[in-house]
Automatic annotation (TrEMBL):
UniProt keyword Metal-binding, yes or no: yes
Keyword Protein transport appears in the UniProt entry: no
GO molecular function, one term: metal ion binding
Top-level taxonomic group: Eukaryota
Name this polypeptide is given: Cloroperoxidase
PROSITE patterns recorded: HEME_HALOPEROXIDASE (PS51405)
Heme haloperoxidase family profile domain boundaries: 47-298
SUPFAM superfamilies, per the entry: Cloroperoxidase (SSF47571)
Signal peptide segment: 1-19
Organism: Mycena venus
Pfam families, sorted: Peroxidase_2
Cofactor: heme b
The family this protein is said to belong to: Belongs to the chloroperoxidase family.
Keywords from the UniProt entry: Heme, Iron, Metal-binding, Oxidoreductase, Peroxidase, Signal
Length: 390
């Protein structure tokens, strides 16, 4: 018997003995999916995953966070909206945009060759902050009837989906306006055009012409320009530690995950295809080896080091003020600060769950903690202590 069918059988048996209903919902036990055996270079999409534009009820959204793996000192990476939307548009994750922990991991590993150490914590964050971890579902876009409020409505009357502002969707995105200024879900041509000005200045030469290949200097230019612009124009500009790591992670993601696996180049047409059209580029290959924290780390570190602001936010007078440091050991690194912020933005009521609900919450919290331990001093696990219903 193949390992996968053994797992399915196990899940069926387990579900049969463990059916647990809370507030009319049936709990689903979250498990680590089996690891793929084929993790090499591969053309994506394959014939089974054609592009189909989303229908009116299909959920699509914006930037998504994740936690890095052990070897690097960053915590939260914001994976761009484009990745999840593209995976959904090709059916690597469910086309309706409502996904389970296992579906998010398997689809991202297959379509983008991202390592489980990156995508596991990413999916854990999405479920804990903006999903329903009891039934093991979250929306990659907005609210959906397929993701009911948590049992007992302990986190308010609705589950927002990862596009909902506040808990982790942050300011200073490459292609979305800050929520205060305008539309933070739909692609902003004018912002992308400004990013392309940086490409024209700093980009490498490539098959499509000079200055058409995204590189670290381009991403630094984009981040510097965007943060300075938002700080000046958005009175509520917030650039906390987790948003610094998230935005820098998204920028590195563009270089390391969207690059053509055969050339390792993120060219203008490739990035245009992912960001504008949310479809895999024609004749595109995923990375030749799984993208781990060790791959993303150097790019993230270079971008973070070049940012014009340390973590902070605008005060009532529009003056940028650095955030206070969290208590030790969470003051020990940017990654550990991000971990602390993450717990501060995850509802504390999740601590008060029972049965499969608690089992799933504990599993996801452990996954986050394992990821942050790449920062050696960050050795204390946090339980969520954030407000509910926000
Ligand atoms: C991570 O941070 C520690 C100190 O906190 C440092 O010793 C180590 O070299 C850093 N690792 C990387 C990959 O930057
Ligand atoms: C592109 O850059 C190369 C090397 O700097 C230069 O020789 C070439 O003239 C440039 N091509 C165009 C079309 O500007
Ligand atoms: C986006 O899709 C349109 C319509 O299919 C196509 O004309 C355009 O070239 C695509 N753009 C990119 C950057 O792939
Ligand atoms: C990726 O690289 C291969 C090999 O150089 C090339 O044939 C293919 O056209 C490239 N794909 C894209 C989308 O640039
Ligand atoms: C973190 O806080 C502790 C306790 O206040 C302090 O001793 C330590 O120096 C701080 N560490 C950093 C990196 O600021
Ligand atoms: C957990 O439940 C107990 C008992 O109802 C309550 O006193 C406590 O405030 C709750 N804690 C949280 C974090 O909701």
């Amino acid at each position: 018997m193949k390992p996968f069918s053994t797992l399915v059988l196990f899940q069926i048996l387990y579900a049969a003995v463990s059916a647990e209903v809370q507030d009319g919902q049936t709990g689903v036990v979250i498990m680590l999916p089996p690891q793929p055996t084929d993790t090499g270079l591969k053309q994506i999409p394959d014939a089974d995953h054609p592009f189909i534009a989303p229908g009116p009820d299909d959920q699509r959204g914006r930037d998504m966070p994740c936690v890095s793996s052990r070897p690097i000192n960053i915590t939260i990476l914001t994976m761009t909206i484009a990745a999840m939307n593209t995976l959904a548009n090709h059916g690597y994750i469910p086309r309706n945009g409502i996904v389970s922990f296992e579906e998010a991991i398997l689809g991202t590993m297959e379509g983008l060759n991202m390592d489980i150490s990156i995508v596991g914590p990413l999916a854990a964050n999405a479920l804990l902050m903006r999903g329903n971890p009891f039934i093991n579902k979250f929306s990659i876009g907005g609210m959906s009837p397929l993701v009911p409020p948590l049992p007992g409505k302990i986190d308010g009357p609705e589950v927002g989906g990862i596009a909902k502002h506040g808990r982790f969707e942050g300011d200073a995105s490459m292609t979305r306006s800050d929520a205060f200024i305008g539309d933070n879900r739909d692609f902003q041509d004018i912002l992308y055009d400004m990013d392309l000005l940086q490409l024209g200045k700093f980009g490498d030469n490539g098959p499509d012409g000079n200055n058409t290949v995204f590189n670290v200097a381009t991403m630094i230019g984009v981040m510097q320009h965007n943060t300075i612009m938002y700080q000046a124009t958005d009175p509520e500009f917030t650039f906390s530690a987790s948003r610094v790591t998230g935005a820098s992670g998204a920028a590195a993601f563009l270089l390391d995950v969207f690059a053509n696996g055969t050339t390792k180049q993120s060219t203008l047409p490739i990035i245009g295809s992912f960001l504008r059209n949310q479809t895999f580029p024609t004749n595109w290959f995923r990375a030749g080896t799984p993208v781990t924290g060790a791959v993303l780390g150097p790019h993230v570190a270079a971008i973070e080091a070049a940012l014009p602001f340390s973590p902070g936010r605008n005060n009532a007078q529009g003056v940028y003020v650095a955030d206070p440091l969290p208590p030790a050991p969470f003051n020990s690194s940017l990654g550990c600060r991000s971990y602390w912020e993450q717990a501060a933005n995850t509802p504390a009521v999740l601590q008060n769950t029972t049965g499969i609900f608690k089992q799933n919450v504990d599993f996801l919290l452990q996954m986050q903690f394992t990821a942050v331990q790449g920062n050696p001093a960050c050795d204390k696990q946090l339980l969520p202590f954030g407000p509910a219903g926000v």
